[in-house]
Amino acid sequence: MEPVSENPFVPPGAPRPAPTPDSGSHEPGRPPLGPPPVGYVSPTGYAPSAPPPSAQPATAGPHVQGPFGTAPAHPQHQGSERPGQAPLDGWGRPVPDQRQAPARGLGAGWMVLVLVVALIGGALGGWGAQTIATGTQPEAASTPLPTGTEAARDLGDLDGTAQIAAQVLPSVVAIEVRGDQGAGTGSGFVLRADGYILTNNHVVSAGAGAGTRIEVIFSDGSQSTAEIVGRTAEYDLAVLRVDRDGLTPLPLADSDQVVVGDPVVAIGAPLGLQGTVTTGIVSALNRPVSAGSMDETAFINAIQTDAAINPGNSGGPLVDARGEVVGINSAIAQPPGVPGAAPGSIGLGFAIPSNQARRTAEQLIETGSATYPVIGVLLDSRHTGEGVRVATEGQPGQDPLTPGGPADLAGIEPGDIILAIDGRPVTQADELIVAIRAKAPGDSAVLTVRSGQEEREVRVVLDEVEAG
């Protein structure tokens, strides 16, 4: 907050300095005339100061100062009083003979008094006019203003986002991780009533080492220590478990039924603000997103949303209009050209589809690890032309094509260009990888392949590889 300059006027109730002594005589019992008392503040907050007598507006002809301004002087004030009658002042009252005293106008102190009286009088006049116009009595000013219904609201009275939030919030948790390798926070939600919780791998990866403590904070403020059941960097998912029963799980919707434009609600703990609710729509589907570090890169066939997602939302649910989970909030876009800048929501958030999350979570709960599908090829990341090219050279311990793998069995050769998968064009290696990993091992895929000048379609059955 910027510093505020001191008020040159003393606040009401503060000690006031004594008024300047009057330079002339005054009537007995009347306060000495002088400058206005310090500390006067008008009802508008503006603190006026009375101008000196010389600053009063000059008007033609003799005038006197009265309680409501300047008025023409009465003839008797100009020496025309009747014999034996004492002269009258500007207030119409007899005054002592001042022929020996210097002439002066009304003191500045009285100017302040006149102003106060005028303001109060104006306020009373307006009040009186309102009373006459409305026909009400003064007591009507204390009549209470109308209020809304005092009936308590329950879940059945809510609609739209409020009802979804009330339904989902009890099942959403905040997660705090502290370990030797670092600390982090994120979100998650109840997957099963017996204590299983789903979140992102990158939320708990800081706590993968010994001595790590993971705390789960529920919507009612209670906390429980959690253990990692299983996690996979390839899909950026992790399952935790707390020693609790009777939790309320969130149902996982069929993400294949999601369409662009569907309304969605994101719930989580962005920047540690637990229970934050934001709304938006599904902006796009099948966005190829690669996130994470070079050691742990996740390839996500993501749902894009414009619901505000910020750091700390990771692992929280993206739910549809029925309150069912369609995605797990995992990543946000960062404006290009600002590496290292603290990312925040720019309306480009990405969630792992619920169908992928369901399949992976079931594997993690059952075996502690997950698998992902492959076609058994190395891809040339230096290729910049159309499609994605199969590498012509292998790497240590790996051939361009896995002998006996899906691509090898389908007749694909090193140097072939893969143009599309299931009719969906691919132009980058990540797009092909994401499209493959969106399937399950054992599923089939149709690849459009170019060998030299010849194009053909081949069907491959995806192989299974255990995630590291």
TrEMBL record:
| GO MF term set | serine-type endopeptidase activity
Instruction: Identify the InterPro entries for this entry.
Output: Chloro_Bact_Ser_Proteases (IPR051201), PDZ (IPR001478), PDZ_6 (IPR041489), PDZ_sf (IPR036034), Peptidase_S1_PA (IPR009003), Peptidase_S1C (IPR001940)
Segments of this protein annotated with the region Disordered: 1-100
Task: Give the compositionally biased regions (Pro residues).
Answer: 9-20
Gene3D superfamilies, sorted:
2.30.42.10, 2.40.10.120
Question: PANTHER family under this entry?
Answer: PEPTIDASE S12 (PTHR43343), PROTEASE DO-LIKE 8, CHLOROPLASTIC (PTHR43343:SF3)
Q: Key word Transmembrane present in the record?
A: yes
Residue spans crossing the bilayer: 108-129
The alphabetized UniProt keywords are: Hydrolase, Membrane, Protease, Transmembrane, Transmembrane helix
In this chain the PDZ domain maps to 401-453
Q: Does the keyword Transmembrane helix apply?
A: yes
- Its name, as the record gives it, is Peptidase S1 and S6 chymotrypsin/Hap
Q: Which GO terms describe its biological process?
A: proteolysis
